[in-house]
Records
---
Amino acid sequence: MRKILKPDFFNHPTLIVAQNLLGKFLVRKIGNKEIASMITEVEAYDGFNDKASHASRGRTLRNEVMFGEAGRWYVYLIYGMYWMLNIVTGPKDYPAAILIRGVADAKSPGKLTKYFQINKSLNGKIASKTTGLWIEDRGVKVEAKNILKTKRIGVYYAGPYWSRRRYRFLIEIPQ
DNA sequence: ACGATGATGAAC
DNA sequence: TTCATCATCGTA
């Protein structure tokens, strides 16, 4: 089974979509080569009030994709070196996105973008075959009891309430 | 524990 | 125009 996820998949509450993404496959096409790896770790950034989210300080040039329609990529540079890959969720004008933090073959957000050759050029593009980066359902079922929930990484600046929310979701993968 | 490294946004 | 900050990572 190979089903490409359409924008509608992402137009739902961010915390739900985040968990639904575990076990799905991130797929990249470069030239005639296709690479794919299962998503194993994500983080939700949800709404105007989330102090850990770029959107908490309002709409800017960088974060405006987060305010757009679900199913688009939000890609930005962090620490001058690493591209972060997010997928926009929820309705238009509601800022939310899911950071893809890990796949089976690349276990951290900066490493996976390097592995998939992802940079600013994908920012704002729709996750689809035509843009060369998309997500597929390949029939892997993830049980709710197998999803680990922890606080998000690297967001202490967001204060005790928002930094402690368990918006990070991951699954264990057999080696 | 820390430095690399540069875009971003807010202050001036 | 300047400046602190930052959804990280590899080396120590």
---
Amino acid sequence: MAEQIHTAHLEALLGYNTRRAALHIIGAFMHNMAPFNLRPAEFSVLSLIRHNPGITSRQLCAALSILPPNLVVILKQFEKRKLIARKPHPTDGRAIGLSLTAQGEALMAEAEAVSAASDLSATQSLTATERKTLTRLLQKIYLQA
Amino acid sequence: MAEQIHTAHLEALLGYNTRRAALHIIGAFMHNMAPFNLRPAEFSVLSLIRHNPGITSRQLCAALSILPPNLVVILKQFEKRKLIARKPHPTDGRAIGLSLTAQGEALMAEAEAVSAASDLSATQSLTATERKTLTRLLQKIYLQA
DNA sequence: TATTGTTATACTCTATAACTATA
DNA sequence: TATAGTTATAGAGTATAACAATA
């Protein structure tokens, strides 16, 4: 019962290690973002809108691998919270350009600072160089193919 | 509309990068494991039972961060598929020791080979050295604290 | 005909409360 | 009283099908 469990075989898999590390970092993220009432997907949507004013739903879905029906729910809540504004797209009558309200901008200025601090805190066992190396290798995986 | 979306701010977050990479690798894993009818959590449970015969539910939950009620469902299906056997624990009457049946052993011998191949294929943009470095850094994150 | 945004809905994953039997 | 295992259920997260408006 008090025996040591052998996990070496699982720990040889990059899928297992990546998932465990992601859960660790994102767990801290969710805890630190709770005061802002933002979950990971919601934060990333607002962040992309902030740095790409006028972005459309379709572009958000493509960039974040979110399915359109699920984004609709997120944007609806943001509008209710007065964090985003919808403006007709200049050239495409079907599309709608998204941008942050002053309130959304204020929220995200704080939230992005907290997210960076949370990231550092959750990976404080790494040196700055190791963080940079890790970032490069992870992006090599999902930005290829 | 055809504008380039700026994702630099998100890509500076380790949480974002780790999650995207995990989704990439685990997507391949699920695709390759479909013939075995094993999803990620199910595979890891069977793998731990295989390399730790006699392991208990509680030990599985602790090692894999699975909540007991969710493990019950998984084990019930495994028993229906005749992949695992339950034997009373030698010293603790409350606990039950888990082990693979011959059928479960045969399935996992194949499944673990496929999982390793899937892992390599999903990270083929990395060199062997980079994979080793990545594994070390990821484990440093979630095995600490 | 293809695409943007939307609705409704289903399925999976994860989490909580409460129970039983053994320690 | 504490722990191992279980039941039932609720909540997120993710997925598919089908539609209206515009290109």
